[in-house]
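Amino Acid Chain and Its Fold in Token Form
===========================================
Scope: a single protein chain, as residues and as a discrete description of its fold.
Amino acid sequence: labelled as such and written in the usual single-letter residue code.
Position: the record begins directly beneath this header, with no further notes in between.
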Amino acid sequence: MSSSLSVYLLDVAATRALVGSRDDQLLEVIRNSFGDDLARDDDYFSHAIEEGAPTAYEALRAVINGGPFGENKDHAFQYGYAYKRLCSLTGSFLDNNCFTPHRGDWLSVVDEGLNALDVTAVSVEDFSYSDLPGPLPYTYMPGCGEWTPDHIAQALEQFEATKRAVDESGQAPPLEPEVMEAVMQCLGWMRHAAERPGFGVIGFRS
């Protein structure tokens, strides 16, 4: 079974602040402008909804209002996908062809490639975890992680230091071509973020 990665460029702090913001205007805009998307998601998760899971809009409303989230942990995935929807609507989608689809431990393999270049401040495998803003409930799927502006700045400094060392020694770490391609895509995400103060990356694995 393959997985996909969705990665967004956005103001991380502002995006997290949408949770519990009680922004009724944003809710109304989403319902009026993206009703078809909400309906498609409801159709896809119809079985879970029949068993008591919230609809896409109900989950979105709970996320923006900061709750309530219900007691059934099996339905927590809807709130994770609702937060992903907020990221997709308020951020810019970043090219992820090196990661969608992917299988097995590919994200950790790419992390090993980053580490071989002494880039340790960020991790693509972090996008597999449930680092959702509080008070959203834990959910295994979708996974969520973020790269803050500070972590991105540190990672880019680490990469530049490695480049200087390679230029001096003439020896680059041996990486498989597909791993190097994925690493360079990650660096591209970070450079886009570094061009905009306060911006970072939020990623979802599903």
